[in-house]
Amino acid sequence: MRSYDDDALPLQPPIRLPDEATLAAAVRGAPLAEELKPEGDDAEVLAAWADRCRERLAAEEGLLLELIRMFLSREPAKGDIPETLSGLGLVRQAEPYTLSWLGLWAARLIIADTTGQEIPIMGSLADGDASALLHGLRSYPEAERGEELAGWLKNRDTDAAAQIAAVLGTVSPLSRAVGVELLWSDLGEDGRLALSRLLEEPKLGAVIAARSGREDRQPVPEEIAWVLVDMAAALLEFGDEPGEVINSIAMGMNSEEQTNTIAMLAFGDHPWTGRVLQVFIDHHPDERVAAAARKALRRLRGLGDLRT
Fold first, then answer.
1. Nearest Cα to 106, choosing from 47, 159, 184?
2. Cα–Cα distance measured from residue 250 to residue 115, given in angstroms and rounded to the nearest whole number
3. Most buried in the list 31, 38, 46, 105, measured by CB within 10 Å?
4. Radius of gyration of the chain (CA)
């Protein structure tokens, strides 16, 4: 089966799926069910059908691409419905010929197989811990984010804000940005108080201040590189265009100012520094800035060797 570059696929928003029994019933009613004979309980039927989908689509790359195109665009099939997609029950049997529930389910599995991206299902984060919540919410639009957060909060006591605050320093840059936003905007006084308690933390406190507009907490010099990389990395993690990542650090600076800033990034120890510098190397239109990024990346690797 063809593999896809995960960096080329931006984070996808959540999907809604019915329960396991409904999906298994759709499998048993699919045109190819009589031939392929899925057997067992609902979970076994779905596992077997996932394998059948992988096998059939791997044999016809065009069908695989069409399934992924329909999933990403949410648009109907183009032209005649491919017999394999119809037979597997992946496309609705009446106009508009969009993906069925089973098609969304199968496409989600295949995208996970080929890119490693686990597209969230609405309601699936309710039982996870705070780290899993922030990771899952990275791609949620605002309305769906509020709905998912409400489900997560439903069975938790009043320390929900503290649980989220406790993981901000260990999650990914985009998850951290989501957590700061939830605490600042969605969890009321408890959330804002939890953020305030973290302001004096090195690096993390500087990022929180930058994201929440706290001018009373300015970064010390050794934190500036960490904050710049963290905020650029959040855009990179989401799948934004390279130009957006570059602009988040360039911020209207001229070429000389940008080269000086890029040089400074090498002395930070943010785990995403190398990836951010690579964006400048590959995509910055000014060769002087790209050259500064290459030099900074070499210095970063040398400093990394010294640290280890």
1. 47
2. 30
3. 105
4. 23
For residue 228, give the nearest of 196, 260, 184, 255 by alpha carbon.
Answer: 260
pLDDT 10s digits, 105-128: 999 999 999 999 999 999 999 999
144 CB-near residues (< 8 Å, 6+ apart): 13, 14, 122
Structure pTM?
0.90
283 Cβ contact partners less than 8 Å away, ≥ 6 residues apart: 242, 243, 246
The DSSP call for residue 163 is H
Position of tokens 């400074």?
264
Three-class HEC string of 77-144: CCCCCCHHHHHCCCECCCCCCCECHHHHHHHHHHHHHHHCCCCCECCCCCCCCHHHHHHHHHHCCHHH
Contact 215, 194 (CB under 8 A): no
Q: For 79, phi and psi rounded to 5 degrees?
A: 75, -150
Q: Which of 143, 117, 147 is nearest to 12 (CA)?
A: 117
Q: Judge whether 147 and 207 are in contact, CB under 8 Å.
A: no
Instruction: Tokens for 95, please give them.
Output: 């106009």
The residues, ordered by sequence, that sit 6+ positions from 99 with a Cβ below 8 Å of its Cβ are 67, 70, 71, 74, 90, 91, 92, 107
pLDDT tens digits along 247-295: 999 988 999 999 999 999 998 899 999 999 999 999 999 999 999 999 9
Residue with tokens 């409904």: 22
C-alpha dist (Å) from residue 121 to 17, 108, 133, 139, 209: 7, 9, 12, 11, 32
User: In the prediction, which pLDDT does 126 show?
Assistant: 94
Which amino acid appears at position 120 of this protein? P
Ranges of residues in the chain with a pLDDT under 70 are: 1-8, 304-308
Position 306 scores a pLDDT of 61
3 state DSSP class of 74: coil
